[in-house]
User: What shape does this take?
Amino acid sequence: MAKDFSVTDFKRKRKLLQQAGKWVFFGGVVWSLIDCFTSFPTPARGPFALAVGGPLMILGAILYIKGVSLPLKEMTQMASYQKKEVWTVVDLVNEWDLSHATAEKILDAMVQRGYAEFLPDESRRNEMKTYKVFISRETRR
Assistant: This one.
């Protein structure tokens, strides 16, 4: 699992989920509008158009949200792949091409869920936020 992890593949997958979500949602909207409000002959008419278009819109929204959500599970996979326990915000910005604010959000969410721990002494020494990422379940609190 961790041996096959690749940042470029991960980014490609997230971008694909975002694009697929947008297109599926748009397809559901178009399906519903064409079937409900036009006289264009289609197999689904009236309420059945919403029965088909509605789930398409919901599926598109789910795919899009999955593509833009914070990648906490992937971060722990990357940490175990690299055997790197101490991370800074700058590490994430450089390795994942993230913005500084997004990298801080990810690391703060990892702390909240128990995947990482903030190191205040190390942060004062380096003058940047430093976190210890728990690679395996045994090292977690």
About this structure: The chain is about 65% helix and 5% strand. The beta strands are 86-88, 116-118, 130-133. The mean pLDDT is 78.
